[in-house]
Task: structure prediction
Amino acid sequence: MRSQETHDLRVLWDARSIAVIGATDRPRALGRLPVEFLLRYGYGGRIVPVNPKGGTVCGLPAATELTERVDLALVMVPAAAVVDVVRRCGRVGVPVAIIMSSGFVEAGDDGAALQRELVDTAREAGVCVVGPNCIGSVGFRTGQTATFSPLFGAADLPRVPGRVGFATQSGALGFGTVSLALERGIGLHSAVNTGNEAAVSTLDALEALAAEPEVDALLGYTETLADGAALRRLAATGKPLALLKAGSSDAGSKAAASHTGALATSDRVVDAAFRQLGIARARDIDELLDLGAAFSSPHLPRGPRVAVVTTSGGSGILAADAIETTGELTLATLDPATTSALNAIVPAFGATANPVDVTAAVMSDRELLRRALDVVVDDDGVDAVVTCFCVLTGDQVMDIVTAVGEAADRAGKPVFVARTGADFLAPEATEALRKAGLPAYPTPARAVRALAGRWRTARATAGTGASAPVPAAGTALVEAPPPSPGNPAPQRSDEPGLKALLADHGVAVPAGRLAHDPDDAVAAVAELGGHAVVKAVVPGLIHKSEAGGVVGGVTAETARNAYTKVARLGGAVLVEEMVTAEHSLEVLVGVAASPLGQVLTVALGGVLTEVLDDASSRLLPLSREDATEMVAELRGARLLAGYRGAPPLDTAALIDLITAVSEMTIGWPDGFELDLNPVLVLPRGVRVLDAAYIPATPQPDR
Amino acid sequence: MRSQETHDLRVLWDARSIAVIGATDRPRALGRLPVEFLLRYGYGGRIVPVNPKGGTVCGLPAATELTERVDLALVMVPAAAVVDVVRRCGRVGVPVAIIMSSGFVEAGDDGAALQRELVDTAREAGVCVVGPNCIGSVGFRTGQTATFSPLFGAADLPRVPGRVGFATQSGALGFGTVSLALERGIGLHSAVNTGNEAAVSTLDALEALAAEPEVDALLGYTETLADGAALRRLAATGKPLALLKAGSSDAGSKAAASHTGALATSDRVVDAAFRQLGIARARDIDELLDLGAAFSSPHLPRGPRVAVVTTSGGSGILAADAIETTGELTLATLDPATTSALNAIVPAFGATANPVDVTAAVMSDRELLRRALDVVVDDDGVDAVVTCFCVLTGDQVMDIVTAVGEAADRAGKPVFVARTGADFLAPEATEALRKAGLPAYPTPARAVRALAGRWRTARATAGTGASAPVPAAGTALVEAPPPSPGNPAPQRSDEPGLKALLADHGVAVPAGRLAHDPDDAVAAVAELGGHAVVKAVVPGLIHKSEAGGVVGGVTAETARNAYTKVARLGGAVLVEEMVTAEHSLEVLVGVAASPLGQVLTVALGGVLTEVLDDASSRLLPLSREDATEMVAELRGARLLAGYRGAPPLDTAALIDLITAVSEMTIGWPDGFELDLNPVLVLPRGVRVLDAAYIPATPQPDR
Result:
């Protein structure tokens, strides 16, 4: 999406004028609802109902045709009439139209053709179309309820305008989520539904939201995730982002395909990209809202070390379990001074190690939790606190909320609250927690997972572990990452050519050279110390060994025969140093295309690579920190560390190799595959034993 | 626990008389609360407050000492006085005492000693003690609030007596969970807190609850799980059981140890045992309650095939994702007749494949969902339905609830509801759903996970996949599984002895025999076809190869030398058929002790076994179905199926082997280890190449 268009999308929540094309005064008709809602929620701009028959809608005079420029048009006419309406919008200068009508790609082949026509027409007419098949957008600060969602017909809709921007591909599920956010007191700035995403995606809407000074955090629900560059730009804004990507399973992807023609991306790539870019991944609607609440904390974790302070031992154990499970947080080790101070505070039947359990004694000693918390938040080894309590009631809860809020503000550290108790025990608690800026959850595990998401989205800001290509937080939106150096595709993509290129990038490959005839092969073997491997170099021959194209253990005596055998395959003949080692590990380092861009994967190698399924991936380009994390994520990392008395292998060299491959391939035309397999990791260094490059095959237009 | 004691525990929720020892009239004192609560909630039995100073408590005269038999004593005196009180209880014939006092094992070494004294005294006095360090128990049908939990001080406690029994090791967290259950309208029969579990565990309490005719389903929270036999007995009752086991992670286990001295069990064993026994595993409090709601459905799934019917495409995708993730449910394939009927019902822009999306058109056509559901529930290929809707309001929701409830009842199939919308949209919905017997959840994934738990706990009843040793559902409680044949421990536990034993149980081992001298070795090799392996048989020598105790590829010519070399290690000499195969897979089949009993593990073998971490476990004894599942759970199952053009290997023979090992080891004294490693899986048959047995080492008393 062009940045001009991103700018245009502001009108989805802050338009000065809105036309509702297809408006009607008929009670309960969908075409009446946006007008009714805009009036009810105090929208301050101009509303222009359009109905060929004229008349009035909710007391407003209806135009028979749109004849004036408005900031935003809501299009609610039958599918067959939409293209004409969009053309008309273009003629009078409407920059953005929300196409609410159904009957496009979701309705089969004819609908798909209609959707293509809609996109083409909109482009020609200069209209940015949102949808089709969507239910509109809402600005909670402006009262701009440009939607027919029945949510806004509810009798007592809580009004909690806030600073969280929300974009959703699904309308019904999205506004259901909005209703739950309002119920939980999560302050929303806006909600945008993108429907079929013919031109504007969830990520586009989120980019526009991120540009708003009044938006501090972003939540999104999407079924289609195919724009790695947009993800990077979003991450680069420094505003915390949580995404729920539906269609994560095979079965789900199938449903996604039939629902919106969504392009499935593999779950591993999504996971890797989110981790790499500092995007929190929600696995369910609950968790998306849990993250929204986490983003409302005024304090950021400066590290992953979490202290748990609880009035219930059980809650402490559940919190500790969850911390371990995240893989991104750690249970803080308290300073001996902290423990010693806690020993004077916590009853003998409590616990002063982390998790700290002040016990139900808090019922009779209301300041107990405050005293313990005050000590814990001041520990320099504690980056964040999760505090848990259960069935406390009324005043007891309010006292705790005050104490917790004050401790968090004084220390400037986030304190997340797990209150495992019904609302009826302390009806004022939810509101009090919200006012105190304390994210609150019904279970310790949910508090911990939300904190893990907050930490992941804060890491770049905290200055640790951010991916190199992502600019620091606070960089202006829509500014792309700094342009890459941009290497051309490899000129020579045969094995010797690739190995030469790798060597240019500081990667160790076996010594060797092409041999021109049997005698030259004898000479080459001698140059390599009398012990070599002889390999065929034949364009397109990937499985050399099976074809008899590799002869190992060649000496000067056998070199002539080996040359003759391998040369029979019709290509050049490579003579290489024979790399042998008592201790080594075979890995694969490869690059392949994905819907989010080129992805580098490192995996435990050998013939069982796919069965072992011990792999870690990242989007390219990646940083050395990314490469370090990738290697650590392998189960096989234990083998690198020196397994069962074997010497440790050169993990640093493997990390160097991964980083070098990332740098080397920057700028190569997208869609290629590169396979370094096997790569031998040795006690000192690595050797790339084989390398293959497959350029992108041109794709027919979709 | 003896069955007599289990019987005694009924008084935890249904006692005719209760003494409160340490009762006081002082306002807000803990010692006043049980008396106050018993009166407030209409407990119909006799209440005997006991206070050395006499006087009254809540208007009831207090005895200065307990002089009469009561069904249940609540002990609320300081820790140091508890032992005397328990002695007194024994003297007057009190069968069960809840020790609420703190200051026992959770308070360090002195407390631990005091707890041991308490247990010994109670045993001598014939009193069954619950706790110490607990907050009591509640019978919701009897109004027996024998607890000081502040929950029962809440102003407007919802009263939802029901048929779900709940036992919890943690008091505060447990009664917090109870409050959430009441809020959600989950009908509880009772709640029992077991605290330090000096004598009565969560599982003991659950067994007693399972014996109640008025209890239909069981929920438990535990930090200590060390009684595999009790788990089996619970599973055998046929009443659905969900357990939340805290302390699942390493960090969590550490916290568990410091909190209650809990014995950690490894997460994999717990997972395996639950799956094997048909126990639903909750991973969080939310999920435990979700399962409680699932158990309230009057209809049981008869299979794993789920249809999704939704008004929102997004919800359908999330449901499909979740079905895939459970690994225990499948997305049903609808009958062509069903799809064809749906084509006439669902709008063109909806979807008639599973997930079925009737779209938001349900807003204008209120009977649309009913018509679609009616067709789907009647499909014989559908065992259960998850139906999803979002922001529908008021009457719309009530119409849907009626339609869904009627469809479920007519077809006799469970329909779980995911309503992703705030309560304020349809305030009557929760109650209406509950009355219609429809389990309801805020997100599609939670509905699916709860349904998966319902299916797991119903499988035994459905007659598929139940573990052989578990009697059919409905068997009387506390009756143990049928006694096992009971083999003695192996007489000869050296390699030839174990292999002979395996052969007796139909397991294929290499042909072979002991050789008595070099000449005999030559003869033996000849008998085996002239190609053999020669192995040392030395007691205690496990790593034979490293010690030079294995010589492979031995022929008649080399047999004499091989014998001499191996015999040098000082033991007997085994000559065995050399098993070679072009295609084969090495696996490990082993048995080891766990806190839940002996556990059999099958794992991908070779030197990397621990790094690959590709293993599946089950409690012994196990059924052939269990063994089949175990093999299917391995990632390496792909290798058995014939990987990359290799012939398939004999999976059935591997399953036979696992089943045979289970049968062979029934009755062996607990605590042993048995290692069959490697086991070679061949295209036809398996061969156990090596076998070792390590008997239990006697443990010092804990």
